[in-house]
Amino acid sequence: MTRPAHYIIPLLFGALAPSFSMAQCEDGQLEVRIQVHTDTYGNETMWQLVQQGAACGASPIFVGGNPAVTCASAGSFESPPGGYAGNTTIATGPWCLVAGAQYDIICVDSYGDGQAAFTVLVEGVYAASFPATGGAMNRYTFTVRLPEERDMAIISNETSMYGEVDMPVLMAVTVKNVGSAAVTSFGIGYTVPGGSEVTETITGNLAPGAEREVLMSAPWLPQAEGANEVTIRITGVNGESDQGVGNDNVTRTIRIDPAIPDRADDYLLEAPALTQVANADQDILVPRDLDFHPDRSRNELWVINKGNANTGGNTVKFTDPGEADQTFLYQRDPAVRHFMSLPTGIAMGDNNAFATCPGIYDANGNQSTTTPFTGPTLWSADPAIYAQNQFGPLGSHLDMLHVTPRSQGIAHERWNRYWVVDGHNRDVVMHDFKGDHGPGQDYHGNAVIHRYTQVSITRDPNDHIVSHCVLDKRTGWLYIVDNGGQRILRLNTRTGNLAGTPSFGPFESYVQYRNVTGATVQVIVNSGLQQPAGIEVVGNSLYVSDHATGEIIIYDMANGFAERGRIAATPGIMGIKAGFDGRLWYVNATNSTLVRVDPANEIVGIAETTASTWSIHPNPASTSVAIVAPGLAPNTRVDVRDSAGRLCLQGRLGDFAQGMDVQELPNGVYTATIQGRNAQRLVIAR
Fold first, then answer.
1. Fewer CB within 10 Å: N-end or C-end of the chain?
2. Which pTM does this prediction carry?
3. For residue 614, is pLDDT > 80?
């Protein structure tokens, strides 16, 4: 994705009445005008006003924009000269259209990654608006009618789909003033089954057509598990009733599950067992992080692999992980070279999406550039979307932002809002993707990004060991690993004030990109760590993995973060995560394994992984590997073939008594076989 993204100028609503004369329409008709707001590449726009449901080009009422752009050229990666200028508002019309009828605006972008925005005026009064959302061809429908004076609409619901007992659920929606008068205050409320409506009044000026996100100050604290249908509604506008009640209500079914138990006491009572659940045979190849999908009925654990800069990373999804019927699915999006380049972290969202962050300086492959186009990527966890090769050259990604090179870790807050540790700038950045642009599109202009420069971390100079973060959603504290500083920090995300524009970037336009100053930052652990990497919060326990020692250190959050004890795991450990039953899971990037930490008194069986009578170590490898094959003769043949089946190395066991030299093999996945035995996967990664 080397072409700069397209962005729309901010839409200004309010005094929108045109200065030219009104059309003389017949009875039963109303005058309609349309304002077109182009993006940076206005020449790529063509649009048509058509009868509702009409196809592009089928007897349009009006055609605007570049005549060189046709319906057939949508998404053709062409940028012909002519047409509209960039970042400009163009007034079109008037037309006399049938009152009460619906019409469509069809907008075509020839390149396929941007879009114009539109404002519809009826009789000179704001009636509808359609912001730019990206894509090659969009259709927008409006009704020819004069709006009510007071009409607030809930246009999207960003309230979580999943929750836990005693974990606050935030009520979040986006509202829009679709009335003709400015809104200075409006009421909003929510109702949960068996409860009274919780209401509050929101103040602030909203011009006609303007919209804003509303996060209600009083969250819901669920006390029992189960499915709950929550209703959110507009309760009034400017101190009076809302005149357009048909768009006032939204509902969300929220699945409340039991809280995850803290198993620290079990782990400290007796040394736990380390149960290997998967390895390279299940495509665990230099893993760096893991997370569980919050829909517990899916019972999915996702692992993200490092990969390399030329081919990008990948994920492995385990269904029923650690159980007898465990299955796994390796997935690699067609465009991961850019959107999942050397990933360091993965975080599941509460809306069937997830985000990953890249550990590379520039995701376009130019590591000497001064404008790194790199940052977290938003993905769908829908199997019909993620990693499917049907959305064009930009793969299946839902969104990507570009101000955090060499990202070290990522944590989810709510909906499309994530926190990222910026390894290049050594600070922490909040990314709110807001509404994503859809699979494979390229519009990022509605994002909100806040940079917290008072946080200071040092990444691994070799860009391998991660510095993860985790958000305690009960309190708003973000816990951050400082790998190079051998310490743990925390940031109170509910503190701080917006300040000026950051000095780093931006390299594209966003709704907001600002510094935050005055936030509370504390150092909570500054000794006893060698190479801290992963981090997790459960109950009153903070868990930190140490890549060098292979330990998981347990800290008491209720007692000044005093160290309670250590779990002896394996050197090479990176990301850690608690399962829904409280058991810890981790990935090891050195021996490419997925491991569950079982309390000694609750050890359970898992599915057999690979029944092998020989093995290769280390795997992944960089220079040489040792072959362990008990009972086999020294003259037993060993073959190593690449993914195309070509023979790359061959010899006898006796030849490799001191190790098999693999320094000449390029990075990749190979198949190693010993005469008469099952094949083994060999990964070369440097």
1. C
2. 0.81
3. no
